[in-house]
Write a structure and sequence with these properties.
61 residues
């Protein structure tokens, strides 16, 4: 959530929460969505720091 736009604004937790709100797809789909949102926000620029994204799902039963 620390990715920056060309105008040096941070993607931030609020944008991350908005991006994933009401998503019901698979964990892989959610990760793809987050990566796309961050890439769009940053204008396709290379990220300036290491990136780590972990997804998990809960199995009922």
């Amino acid at each position: 959530s620390e990715a920056m736009s060309d105008s040096r604004k941070i993607f931030g937790r609020a944008r991350l929460e908005k991006a994933v709100a009401n998503q019901s797809g698979s964990v892989a789909d959610l990760i793809d969505l987050i990566v796309e949102e961050v890439d769009e926000f940053s204008g396709g620029s290379a990220l300036r720091d290491d990136t780590c994204l972990i997804g998990f799902a809960r199995k009922d039963g």
